[in-house]
Write a structure and sequence with these properties.
Order of helices and strands of chain B: HEHEHHEHHEHEEHEHEHEHH
Number of domains of chain A: 2
CATH superfamily of chain B: Aldolase class I
Shape of chain A: globular
Strand content of chain A: 15-25%
Number of helices of chain A: 17
Radius of gyration of chain A: 20 Å
CATH architecture of chain B: Alpha-Beta Barrel
Mean pLDDT of chain A: 95
Number of strands of chain B: 9
Mean pLDDT of chain B: 96
CATH class of the largest domain in chain A: Alpha Beta
Shape of chain B: globular
Largest interface: A-B, 37 and 46 residues
Strand order of the largest sheet of chain A: 3-4-14-9-10-13
Number of helices of chain B: 12
CATH architecture of the largest domain in chain A: 3-Layer(aba) Sandwich
Oligomer: heterodimer
Structural class of chain A: alpha/beta
Strand order of the largest sheet of chain B: 5-4-3-2-1-9-8-7-6
Low-confidence stretches of chain A: 1-6
CATH topology of the largest domain in chain A: Rossmann fold
Strand content of chain B: 5-15%
């Protein structure tokens, strides 16, 4: 959670007003402004407090199960070497965030935010969720700390993700189906903001990704940076040098920024983020905000958004519910425009194939989100020599996705 | 004297909100004026109205489903200005539709359409650069919101650069839900009046003439929105008569409160 502010650094954002270049900021109703200014002050104090850091690290180690392994994927490496030109095909590693408690990287951020909530004396937790992963992670930490918790989830998603709805209920959370708008993640976020504005005095909003008004993009990034920090240490210990490329999927972008941030000033480390291209960019049914959107203001920040020429937000589509959002975190918009990170679109079909390949060759069922990152390997491995090191952030496990995948493959369960 | 100054110079003013493109907007706006509304707020529909309760959320979606575009809203404003040269008109909405073509474009369009002021829900004073300078440059008032969470230390920043009137959001919450206690409104209005010379209008949760009368005893204006928007939903094309009737009752209550 440290950051060095040097000139020409990619690690000195956001500025004091919460802007990443022209992105980010605090676009919220006046009712929320005093609260997010408070949150920023409290976060600065927590960051400087060794006791806060010690408690965070203790929970990551003993509740979440960190560090997560850096796993060398031998058969996938071999698979792509066979298909690459002579001498090409890097060593492929997985950062195993799928092995965390609750099965994804989401819990890292939830542990950090609930500690902040307690520090601020808040007694009630709310969160939004799409597929239910962030909802489950939030319900988990709320149970661990004995705080009542309400999760807002689009009514369509409640119907599509019944197992996660039941998990949240088992963990003691109230799941509030959202029937406004398109009944998916962005509407769940609208509803969480509406609840927050009416309950600012006692409620802490645990935002699930590195987006929203400042300081959320910064603090979520910082809590998730444990991913990249561990990867750096593990790769140094194993190979004696840094990876040549790190690769991650980008929905809101919290797993990606957590992997990227610690390496941003290591120019020898290339970075690729993968957006969900759904049925293809040209179909209009996708969730690739950088490839197919343009800058605008939504949910508290300026960032790339899917929108029409009047600034109305358009519906996103991805087979992966976790990527099905018409925007992404503001730091990614900035990294995109600055050229430090390259962003690629991957379609539903490509992700499905990569999902199956990973199951068959490595014995790991990846989340459909992570399968988008895996699907970029076909292209990227042909560009990298055999002695190069490539790390994919395997952001979550795919048990939650087996129904979706079965349906897409026409299989009966 | 500006239209705002005139509207607030004759005792407490009634400020009425409707969502543009929901129902027959021109006829509904005329009904507001005929009923005695002193200031009109025309809502710009947005796909993601996170500060609004169910009534205005649904009005936004009804309007967008009918294909309402930003150009249509500006045309409604322009036509209103031609029909009603004296009545102040405010556009109220969210940051993205207002700034998507750049703040200068929006400010120019507002000025050309005869719009007197703009309320943007999700551009707080901290992000003023995204809209405020362009509006001020074109002589369009930026009307800021003050809320129960706006403390004394913050208030001067909120007031800085705003004109026309101050919109006091009487409850921490979304539009159209519960109403604030009269005591808290009196206190807040007194604090705002002490800090600024511009009129203070109070809204959120005001539905009946009785509520409006109580608020008008202490505030310069009373804002009613969701109750009117509900009439558009209930009555469809026959809404003007119902809108005129409610507005007349509200206006009577507000104008005779003191």
């Amino acid at each position: 959670m440290t950051q060095t502010a040097t000139p020409n650094s990619f690690r000195n954002q956001p500025d004091e007003h919460g802007h990443f270049g022209r992105f980010g900021g605090r676009y919220v109703a006046e009712t929320l402004m005093p609260l997010i200014l408070d949150l920023e002050r409290e976060y600065r104090a927590a960051k400087a407090d060794p006791a806060f850091r010690a408690e965070f690290e203790d929970l990551l180690a003993n509740f979440v199960g960190r560090p997560s392994p850096l796993y060398f994927a031998p058969r996938l490496t071999e698979h792509f070497r066979e298909r690459a030109p002579e001498g090409m095909g890097p060593k492929i590693f997985f950062k195993r965030e799928d092995l965390n408690h609750t099965g994804a990287h989401k819990i890292n951020n939830c542990v950090g935010q609930i500690l902040l909530a307690r520090r601020m004396g808040k007694t009630r937790i709310i969160a939004e969720t799409g597929a239910g992963q962030h909802g489950v992670a939030t319900a988990t930490v709320a149970a661990r700390f004995g705080l009542p918790c309400t999760i807002f989830m689009g009514a369509k998603d409640v119907e599509r993700q019944k197992p996660n709805v039941f998990r949240m209920k088992l963990l003691g959370a109230e799941v509030q189906p959202v029937t406004s708008g398109a009944e998916t993640l962005k509407d769940a976020m609208n509803e969480a903001l509406r609840d927050w504005v009416a309950n600012v005095h006692d409620t802490f909003y645990i935002i699930g990704t590195a987006a929203g008004p400042h300081p959320y993009p910064e603090l979520v990034r910082d809590f998730q940076s444990v991913i990249g920090e561990e990867t750096r240490e593990q790769m140094m210990a194993r190979e004696g040098r840094l990876p040549d490329m790190v690769l991650a999927c980008v929905g809101g972008g919290s797993n990606a920024i957590g992997m990227f941030y610690p390496f941003l000033d290591d120019q020898e480390v290339a970075m690729v983020g993968v957006e969900a291209a759904g049925h293809g960019i040209e179909s209009g049914q996708h969730a690739a905000s950088l490839t197919g959107g343009r800058p605008g203001i939504l949910h508290g920040n300026r960032t790339y958004l899917l929108q029409d020429e009047d600034g109305q937000i358009t519906e996103a589509h991805s087979i992966s519910a976790g990527l099905d959002y018409p925007g992404l975190g503001p730091e990614h918009s900035w990294l995109h425009e600055s050229g430090r990170v390259r962003y690629l679109p991957i379609t539903d079909d490509e992700a499905l194939k990569a999902f199956q390949l990973c199951c068959a060759l490595e014995g790991i069922i990846p989340a459909l989100e992570s399968a988008h990152a895996l699907a970029a390997l076909g292209q990227l491995t042909t560009e990298m020599a055999e002695d190069k090191l490539l790390v994919i952030n395997l952001s979550g496990r795919g048990d939650k996705d087996i129904f979706t995948v079965a349906e897409a493959l026409g299989a009966e369960i | 004297m500006s239209r705002f100054e005139q509207a607030f110079s004759r005792g407490p003013a009634l400020v009425c909100f409707l969502t543009a493109g929901d129902g027959d907007t021109a006829a509904n706006l005329d009904a507001l004026v005929a009923g005695g509304a002193n200031v009109i707020e025309l809502g710009m529909p947005f796909t993601d109205p996170m500060a609004d309760g169910p009534a205005i959320q649904q009005a936004n979606l009804r309007s967008l489903a009918k294909g309402t575009r930003t150009a249509d809203i500006l045309n409604m404003a322009r036509a209103f200005r031609e029909r009603h040269p004296e009545v102040p008109l405010v556009l109220m909405g969210y940051a993205n539709p207002m700034t998507v073509r750049g703040p200068e474009w929006f400010a120019e369009q507002c000025a050309a359409a005869g719009v007197d002021g703009v309320i943007c829900v999700d551009i707080p004073t901290e992000e003023d650069a995204d809209l405020g300078p362009a509006l001020r440059d074109k002589g369009v008032s930026l009307i800021r919101l003050a809320t129960p969470t706006t403390d004394a230390a913050r208030l001067p920043d909120v007031l800085k650069g705003s004109s026309g009137f101050i919109y006091y959001v009487s409850v921490a919450g979304i539009t159209g839900m519960q109403q604030a206690a009269q005591g808290s409104i009196e206190q807040a209005v007194a604090a705002l009046k002490a800090a600024s010379d511009i009129p203070v209008a109070v809204g959120f949760g005001v539905r009946t003439p009785e509520q409006a009368r109580e608020i008008a005893k202490v505030a310069d204006g009373v804002v009613v929105g969701s109750a009117l928007v509900d009439l558009v939903k209930q009555h469809g094309d026959d809404a003007p008569a119902a809108i005129r009737e409610l507005t007349a009752a509200l206006a009577e209550a507000v104008h005779t409160a003191r």
